[in-house]
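FIELD: query
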Amino acid sequence: MEKIKEKLNSLKLESESWQERYEELREQVKELEQSNTEKENEIKALSAKNNQLDDEVEKLENQLADTKQLAEDSNNLRSHNENYTKKNQDLEQQLEDSETNLKEVTEKLEEADLNSEQMGRKIIALEEERDEWEKKCEEFQSKYEEAKKELDEIATSLENL
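FIELD: result
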């Protein structure tokens, strides 16, 4: 009878353990489902943005093709063609400027990342050096205390003489 009670207690403890594990796993599943939902929403938003940008690119490409066709078809619109060509050149220059700026910003960002990593390493090295100096300071403090104690003992023995 005693063994049955022990077995029941053992099974009860095991059951509680499994119940706790079940709750933990259920919580993890809930978190993963929430994370998955957030990621799906993000994917939907990015897909919509991508589609919008594709439409805009297609629209801009169509506008460019129409502009070129009009320039070729009409000698009367040469002045307009020159304006469009100038605008196109301005846009290309802006694009080149933007690309140059992007490259500069990217290089500066990489430089900053590099500097950050270097500073991190320097900080670690300085902390290690500081720890060494603190250890040396403690050693000197200990030696000082010992020397002071010996000096006090010598002074006491000299006074006794």
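FIELD: remark
The chain is about 95% helix and 0% strand.
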